[in-house]
Amino acid sequence: MSLSEIIKNLLSGLPNTLFILVTSFIISSIIGLFVMWLSLQKDKISKAIAKIYTGLSRGTPPLLVLLLSYYEFPRLLGFVGIDANDWSKNFFAIFGLAIGFGGYMGELFRSAYNDIDDSQFDAAYAVGMNKRDVLKVIIIPQMFTIALPNIQTMFLSFLKASSLVYVIGIADMYRNATTLANVSQGVYQLKIFIVLGLLYWVITLVFEFLFNLYIKKHNYS
Amino acid sequence: MTLLKIDHLKKSFNKKTILEDVNLEINKGDVIAVIGPSGSGKTTFLKNINLLEHPDSGTLSIEDKKLDLSHVSTQDELWLRRHIAMVFQNYALFKNKTAFENITTGLIYGKHLDKKEAAKIAEEELKQVNMLDKKDFYPSQLSGGQQQRIGIARATALKPSVILFDEPTSALDPELVGTVVDDIDQLAKNGQTMIVVTHLISFAKRIANKVIFFEDGEILSAGTPEEIIDNPKNDRIKKFLEAVSRDK
Amino acid sequence: MNVNFMIESMPKLLSVLPVTIFLSVIGVIFGLILAIPISIVREKRIPVLAQIFDVYISLFRGIPIIVQIYIVYYGLPRLLFLLNQNNPGAKGFTMPSMIIGIVAFALNASANLSEAFRSAYHGVDKSQYDAAISVGLTKSTTFKKVVIPQLIPNFIPNFTNILLDLIKDTALVYNIGIVEIMGQANILASFSFNYLEAYLDALVIYLVVCFIFASLLSLLENKIKQHVFA
């Protein structure tokens, strides 16, 4: 089996990999922002929920989250009267990844928020801005800029974790590789995985490059 | 004519009293210098005036409005901050905004002016402090002195009744202090009512018509610069002034 | 939900817990041993070697660990076979999966740990080094007595994350035939399809193990901080 055939076969799974990657990352970010908001509230219950969720998120293997998501979440939905039997596997993969990493995203945003100098808040309030505007115009943009390098790292973690959706049987790059490996023998198996590894590596480098460009542009604030 | 009157301002934190019944009356055009040892509560005092921190009790009267400081509505809080502006020790320019935008942000979101009006005022203010050529620079690209002058412009742009200065020169390199001091002096000469917390005794003497000595959360003594600085009657003030001048 | 099943399966799952812990701890230790020379080479920028290691780290951090595991699984026996071709008595290589697991984890950990080292090292103020040198300490004493003690508390949080990641990644090695927690859970569940119960049991074990390691390391970090900075 020629090299270019292998690459073509594997790359056919790339669109799905990217789709799952981007969607789950965005949803996980939203979850993370919510968790951060909870952890900043004054009441103990919100803080506790945030802490517990973050602990669960950081102590659970992503593989396990995906398995639970695919096999058990439909049952849970069933209790509420929702029939999820025909929902696409991608949905459960995205849901699993988003929830599994939400704690990490929350920590990321929370630490970026805490890095902002108190006097930024003071100065914004001092010119007569209300709370919503202070957050929208001054704080959140700064939080985002501070968080960018970590967002880059997390994004790449999502890329690597996306390979785990094989366990739900989704056709992405990794799944294509294992399928191919199962019908090949001997040295080809090694070759397939090395090619797969290099493909992931190249994609990682591309994203790293793009992120670095963006970070450089945004570095005056 | 009394512009600002503060009565019985009290503030505690974690069972410690930080401000112990502070009373102050300011007339239009007054420049009040607040001096005193570190930790005496000077900064907290300023922050309690524009409600960045919330007093336990006290009243504040400004421009025909009297506020009970223990229960200020959000509306009144926002109103107050449009009339009392602040300049910070570490400049506190919005890091994600250009010099120009630092000034317009307060005008647009605080005073609800439209973009054109805000832009016009911002340009004038920048001209006043000779920083118009740096208007599209970000704070990280400016020196401390330049940042502080923009900080002052940000405050004056609001056309406030009173400006509070929290140790405006403490974070500056010595050679930059002069320009900022001159700017503040010019404001004073133009009749701006100000309360200035400062370490620089000579600066206090130069611009202020009234000096307050703050210690342990209260005003120990108040009077003219001659009374407080040149001929201090109180031992503690004497000691403080000696310690400060030894550094020169 | 079959709670009985959950209770009965717990001890059976716990019986393979040592495998999980062994794999991740040995992996991280070997990774640490590898990471130190790698970090030194990269810091000193030794020509050629530093570039090679830069690529090495980029590879191990850019490829999903499941793929790394398979590459080692297929590649290591082959590599050893190639290296041993001169040895006439060499049989074909069937390696115990455990060794493959440890190698894969060690290599992966070495890349991450090396980066963690670098960041902890740069987190120590350079002026500390300068001050030590200027009062007459030799370079090696400075490192031993001034830089490294300050570096370690910086290093521990990242080390904790890497170790916890390894523990969670052990969930993948049943693919190459090692029976650890996930593998055992799948086996137990397959008899009467009690997947939810088995997975929940596994989840609890992972959470507890991660929590224990994280707490211990945090205590260690505080103790060292006290000892160094107190």
Protein model, in words:
The complex is a heterotrimer of chains A (221), B (248) and C (230). Chain A is an all-alpha fold and 221 residues long. Chain A has helices spanning 3-11, 14-40, 44-59, 62-79, 89-115, 118-126, 131-161, 173-183, 187-217. In chain A, helix 2 (14-40) packs antiparallel against helix 3. The model of chain A has no long low-confidence stretch (mean pLDDT 90). Helix content of chain B is 40%, strand content 26%. Chain B has helices at 42-49, 74-83, 99-110, 115-128, 144-156, 174-189, 201-207, 225-230, 235-246, and strands spanning 2-13, 16-27, 31-35, 57-62, 65-68, 84-87, 162-166, 193-197, 210-215, 218-223. In chain B, a hairpin with a 2-residue loop joins strand 9 (210-215) and strand 10 (218-223). The model of chain B has no long low-confidence stretch (mean pLDDT 91). Chain C has one domain: MetI-like (MetI-like fold, Orthogonal Bundle). Chain C has helices at 3-14, 17-44, 49-62, 65-83, 97-123, 126-134, 139-169, 181-192, 195-229. Chain C is flat and about 70 Å long. Chains in contact: A-B, A-C. Chains A and C meet through helix 3, helix 4, helix 7, helix 8 and helix 9 of A and helix 3, helix 4, helix 7 and helix 9 of C.
Layout of helices and strands:
The complex is a heterotrimer of chains A (221), B (248) and C (230).
Chain A: H1 3-11, H2 14-40, H3 44-59, H4 62-79, H5 89-115, H6 118-126, H7 131-161, H8 173-183, H9 187-217
Helix pairs in contact in A: 1-8, 1-9, 2-3, 2-5, 3-5, 4-5, 5-7, 6-7, 7-9, 8-9
Chain B: E1 2-13, E2 16-27, E3 31-35, H1 42-49, E4 57-62, E5 65-68, H2 74-83, E6 84-87, H3 99-110, H4 115-128, H5 144-156, E7 162-166, H6 174-189, E8 193-197, H7 201-207, E9 210-215, E10 218-223, H8 225-230, H9 235-246
Parallel strand pairs in B: 3-8, 3-9, 6-7, 7-8
Antiparallel strand pairs in B: 1-2, 1-4, 4-5, 9-10
Helix pairs in contact in B: 3-4, 3-5, 4-5, 5-6
Chain C: H1 3-14, H2 17-44, H3 49-62, H4 65-83, H5 97-123, H6 126-134, H7 139-169, H8 181-192, H9 195-229
Helix pairs in contact in C: 1-8, 1-9, 2-3, 2-5, 2-7, 3-5, 4-5, 5-7, 6-7, 7-9, 8-9
Main location (chain B): membrane
GO molecular function, one term (chain B): ATP binding
Domain ABC transporter (chain B): 4-241
